[in-house]
Amino acid sequence: MIRPVLLAVLATLFLAIGAKAETMKLAVTTSFHNSGLSDILLPVIKEDTGLDVQLLVVGTGQALRLGEAGDVDAILVHSRGAEETFVEAGFGTHRREIMYNDFVLIGPKSNPAGLAAPDGIVAALAQISQSKATFVSRDDESGTHKREMSLWRRAGLNPENFGPWYNAVGAGMGAALNTASGLSGHILSDRASWLNFGNKADLAILFEGDPLLFNQYAYIPINPKKHPHVKQDPAAQLENWLVGDRAKGLINAYTINGEVLFTFNAHP
């Protein structure tokens, strides 16, 4: 005879086995994923909400295209101009800011281009161009690449006219950093990816702190009016979690070697 307590335990076990977590697809940038923060957030999201968030790790440009095609339920990206165009075109329902960090200019510790911090990031890039110091570009339509291009334009320069010192690799943040390390070159990186990057070799942060290097991440649910099959409710549930106190605590507490990688700035 099976005791009532054992029956209750077995029933709970069968329910747990039979229950399936709600899944949704979220396109995120390589810089966000490379930071390691997703490894912290995803298990807690599942614990708190039951959501099994499946990440598609791509550059911002590709994330936006996945959203346009309705291949994901939401995106988490960092290129405000492109995001606003995406929402205005009706592909996203709205744009919700979640957290920020900043971009940093990486290069050889010897500083062969003679970069001087007080001159600003635009002047620093102009100096790199003038000295023809090795530079590595992601060249992948990511948020980082878009920011790099905007900074070259501010300097009155066009990378299409650059010589062999400019290396356009068409790769994610980690692979591009590895290339810069191998070439002992300069590269624009988000701070989180740089801090979490293991193959630094002789590279270091040569420039930081310019307001033009501010790097905002935003969450955009895909519009069900464009793509009725997208999972609107799970996307909304994830958004509510991302702007809540639990996310705030985890994001603000995430550090590498004592350095904070992201700052939460979502509004309830």
Structure explained in plain terms:
The protein has 268 residues and is of the alpha/beta class. It has 2 domains: 21-100 and 214-264, 3-Layer(aba) Sandwich (D-Maltodextrin-Binding Protein, domain 2); 102-213, D-Maltodextrin-Binding Protein, domain 2. Helix content is 41%, strand content 24%. It contains 11 helices and 12 strands. Strands 1, 2, 3, 4, 5, 6, 7, 8, 9 and 12 form a 10-stranded mixed sheet that branches. The model is unreliable at 9-19 (pLDDT under 50).
Keywords:
12 strands; two-stranded antiparallel sheet; alpha/beta; 2 domains; D-Maltodextrin-Binding Protein, domain 2; 11 helices; 10-stranded mixed sheet; globular
